[in-house]
């Protein structure tokens, strides 16, 4: 290679956790970025000799790793964070969330909620999120302006804030608007098998096929959903979804808690990905997904936060720790879902579950430059023997110091560069007072 080749951004020093196939880390690493992609990764000394760059980030003493990926969320629902808690899923949805959405969701509330959620996610080191919500163009435009990678869908549920024709037209608009956009990826999202009629589920499967789009759906989230599917269709949810063409290599199925062995095998054979959202699932008492069995079957399982209304924060590092601890207890085995596995679920396996494993999820030459830097200079983070153990069990959202997406620095020194977070918080406070139960003097 020509000595002192130009690059746009150079990260020098620190422990670089590559999340490649060998789970290699480089103790004094370097990473070069040009035109939004990683052009070199290796030892610091070698990159200092090989590249020249006006912008250099000193990561000495820190952890450099791929950006975290949120495989399932409802981004604008920050507006109803804490609106109603401690209920079963059905009661929460039918008596509180869906009535609120039917009355208050519109492009403006979606944009405001998305702005706040994206600020929160960037602060937590999330560089890509997979969204399921209504009026998706508003979320997509906010994400693109903020420089954040987003998978977005014009979601549909019967009784939702817009009709099915709007969903079809909205999907077509997303496809045409973002056909060549490097950050925004349109998808198709029927809310669930129980909230969408069979004819419309089949049409959304055809829509996914027609445009070659991913398909995002809640699947087998509760025992009640499974029984309802049996009563209505004579099939459990995965078989019913498969009969309608909803299970394929572009599918990302959220939750997948109540699966038997045959259903795990079916999802693996179809090549679908799964989003595991342990904190939301625990809070709603929906059950515990059989994640180790899914991974053993070869399913790509990524971590997700679900929405801020049911979690109530958008923090993949929290989900990583919860995942590791929860499944060890369930299995009565401390070796289950070790730190390396969980870090992969937050990065490369998450990318694979979204069909994006060739583009993001690891620090490898040629991949898109989605990189975060974690600061270990805090009492809770000292000492650090194993970086993956640290990422899984120690690090917090507040430890994320720098976020780079598509080669662009969107947060540096904990300062957001592309989002006015004061305005985002102010807008959501105002909307919470107007649409919810919050009083004018409340601080939330």
Break the fold down into its secondary structure elements and pairings.
Elements: E1 5-6, E2 9-12, E3 15-17, E4 25-26, E5 29-34, E6 37-43, H1 44-50, E7 51-52, E8 56-58, E9 63-66, E10 68-73, H2 89-104, H3 107-123, E11 126-131, H4 136-146, E12 149-153, H5 164-177, E13 184-187, H6 198-211, E14 215-219, H7 223-233, H8 237-243, E15 251-255, H9 261-270, E16 273-276, H10 278-283, H11 291-296, E17 301-303, H12 316-331, H13 339-346, H14 348-353, E18 371-374, H15 387-393, E19 400-405, E20 408-412, E21 415-416, H16 421-435
Parallel strand pairs: 1-7, 2-8, 3-9, 10-11, 11-12, 12-13, 14-15, 15-16, 16-17
Antiparallel strand pairs: 2-5, 3-4, 5-6, 9-18, 18-19, 19-20, 20-21
Structure characteristics:
444 residues, alpha/beta, Urease, subunit C, domain 1, TIM Barrel, 2 domains, seven-stranded mixed β-sheet, four-stranded mixed β-sheet, 16 helices, 21 strands, 20% strand, globular, disordered C terminus
Detailed description of the structure:
- This protein starts with a strand and ends in a 9-residue tail after the last helix.
- It is globular.
- The strands form five sheets. Strands 4-3-9-18-19-20-21 form a seven-stranded mixed β-sheet, covered by helices on one side. A four-stranded mixed β-sheet has the order 6-5-2-8.
- Helix 3 runs parallel beside helix 4, helix 3 crosses helix 16 and helix 13 packs across helix 15.
- It is built from 16 helices and 21 strands.
- The chain is of the alpha/beta class.
- Helix content is about 40%, strand content about 20%.
- It folds into two domains: about 110 residues, Urease, subunit C, domain 1, CATH 2.30.40; about 290 residues, Alpha-Beta Barrel (TIM Barrel).
């Amino acid at each position: 290679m020509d000595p002192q080749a130009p690059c746009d951004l150079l990260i020098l020093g620190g422990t670089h956790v590559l999340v490649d196939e060998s789970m290699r880390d480089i103790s004094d690493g370097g990473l070069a970025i040009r035109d939004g992609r990683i052009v070199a990764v290796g030892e610091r000394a070698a990159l200092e000799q090989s590249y020249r760059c006006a912008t250099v980030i000193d990561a000495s003493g820190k952890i450099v790793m791929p950006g975290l990926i949120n495989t399932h969320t409802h981004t604008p629902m920050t507006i109803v964070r804490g609106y109603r808690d401690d209920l079963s899923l059905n009661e929460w949805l039918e008596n509180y969330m869906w009535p609120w959405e039917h009355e208050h969701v519109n492009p403006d509330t979606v944009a405001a909620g998305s702005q706040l959620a994206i600020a929160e996610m960037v602060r937590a080191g999330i560089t890509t999120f997979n969204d399921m919500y209504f009026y998706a163009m508003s979320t997509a435009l906010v994400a693109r302006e903020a420089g954040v990678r987003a998978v977005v869908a014009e979601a549909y549920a019967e009784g939702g804030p817009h009709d099915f024709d709007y969903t079809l037209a909205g999907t077509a608009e997303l496809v045409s608007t973002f056909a060549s956009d490097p950050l925004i990826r349109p998808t198709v999202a029927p809310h669930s098998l129980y909230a969408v009629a069979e004819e419309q589920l089949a049409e959304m499967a055809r829509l996914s096929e027609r445009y070659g789009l991913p398909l995002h759906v809640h699947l087998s989230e509760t025992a009640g959903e499974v029984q309802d599917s049996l009563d209505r269709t004579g099939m459990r949810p995965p078989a019913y979804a498969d009969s309608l063409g909803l299970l394929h290599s572009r599918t990302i199925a959220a939750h997948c808690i109540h699966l038997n062995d045959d259903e795990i095998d079916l999802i693996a054979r179809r090549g679908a990905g799964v989003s595991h959202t342990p904190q939301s699932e625990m809070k709603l008492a929906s059950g515990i997904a059989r994640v180790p069995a899914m991974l053993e079957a070869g399913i790509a399982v990524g971590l997700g936060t679900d929405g801020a209304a049911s979690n109530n924060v958008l923090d993949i590092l929290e989900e990583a720790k919860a995942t590791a601890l929860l499944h060890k207890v369930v299995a009565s085995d401390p070796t289950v879902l070790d730190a390396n596995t969980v870090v992969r679920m937050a990065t490369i396996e998450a990318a694979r579950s979204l069909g994006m494993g060739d583009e993001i999820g690891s620090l490898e030459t040629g991949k898109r430059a989605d990189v975060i830097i974690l600061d270990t200079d805090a009492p809770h983070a000292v000492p650090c023997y194993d970086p993956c153990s640290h990422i899984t069990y120690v690090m917090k959202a507040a430890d994320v110091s720098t976020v780079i997406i598509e080669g662009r620095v969107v947060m540096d020194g904990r300062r957001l560069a592309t989002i006015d977070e004061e305005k985002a918080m102010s807008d959501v406070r105002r909307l919470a007072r107007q649409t919810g139960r919050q009083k004018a003097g409340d601080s939330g």
